[in-house]
Specification:
Strand content: under 5%
Distance between the termini: 28 Å
Low-confidence stretches: none
Length: about 220
C-alpha cells in the first residue's frame, strides 16, 4: 500500500487538490451568486442548484479548455520548436519527430514496449500521436461546453433584465464569449512562456522540470 501511494503520489496529490479547489469554487461561487441575487431582488438558490447551473458550468469549462489548449499547443510545439538553454525544450539536434530507432517503434521496439508501438500501420501512427489527439479533443469538448453553458448563463441574465434571449451563434461571436476565452488563453500562454525562459537561468534542485543546479545556462534538453 505504501509503495502504491509513493509510486502514484504525484497524480494523487494533484487529484486531491483539484477536488479541494473545485469544492472551494462551488462554495464561494454559490455565495457570490446569491449575493448578486439579493442585490437584484431575486430568489437565492441552494448549493445543489448552483453546481448544476450554467453559471457554474461555464466557469469550470472555460478554465479547463484553456489548460488543455496550453498542453495541446505545448506538446505539438515542442516537436519542432526549440529553446536553447531550457529543459522544457528538446536538445538542439533532436528537432522533429525523430527516427524510429530513437522512438523505439516497430522493429526497434523493446519487449515491454506498448503493443501498438511494435508493428507498423495505422495503429502505430495513431498511437504515435495519441497524446496530442486526446489533449486536443478534451480542449475542443470543454470549449464547446463553455460555449453552451455560457450561452445559457448569458440568456438567463438577459431574461432577468427583461431582455430577449440571444441566439447561440450571436453569443459565439459576442465580445462576452471572446473576453472570457481570451483572458484565460493569455494567462496560460504567459505561464508556459515564462516557464520555458525562466528555466534557462533558474534551478529547482531535484525537479525534472529544472536542469541540474550546476548545469550551464546554455545546456538544453537535460533534466535535474
Amino acid at each position: 500500500m505504501k509503495s502504491a501511494l509513493r509510486n502514484n503520489s504525484l497524480a494523487l496529490f494533484f487529484g486531491l487538490i483539484f477536488i479541494a479547489a473545485l469544492i472551494g469554487q462551488a462554495l464561494t461561487g454559490v455565495a457570490e451568486y446569491n449575493n448578486q441575487q439579493v442585490v437584484e431582488g431575486l430568489q437565492q438558490i441552494t448549493l445543489g442548484q448552483y453546481i448544476t447551473s450554467s453559471s457554474f458550468a461555464v466557469d469550470v469549462a472555460e478554465n479547463w479548455q484553456s489548460e488543455y489548449l496550453q498542453f495541446f499547443l505545448y506538446i505539438l510545439g515542442t516537436v519542432w520548436l526549440l529553446q536553447q538553454g531550457s529543459p522544457e525544450s528538446k536538445a538542439l539536434d533532436k528537432q522533429g519527430t525523430e527516427s524510429d530507432k530513437e522512438q523505439k517503434v516497430a522493429e526497434y521496439a523493446d519487449a515491454d514496449s506498448p503493443r501498438w508501438a511494435r508493428r507498423r500501420g495505422f495503429k502505430l501512427g495513431l498511437y504515435s500521436r495519441s497524446l496530442g489527439i486526446v489533449m486536443g479533443l478534451i480542449f475542443a469538448a470543454s470549449w464547446f461546453a463553455q460555449s453552451i453553458a455560457g450561452h445559457a448563463a448569458a440568456n438567463e441574465q438577459r431574461l432577468n433584465q427583461l431582455q430577449d434571449p440571444a441566439s447561440y451563434l450571436s453569443y459565439l461571436f459576442s465580445a462576452e464569449f471572446w473576453n472570457r476565452t481570451l483572458q484565460n488563453w493569455q494567462s496560460e500562454f504567459l505561464a508556459v512562456g515564462g516557464m520555458v525562459v525562466l528555466s534557462i537561468y533558474l534551478r529547482q534542485r531535484g525537479s525534472p522540470e529544472s536542469k541540474p543546479v550546476g548545469s550551464p545556462h546554455s545546456a538544453t534538453g537535460i533534466e535535474g
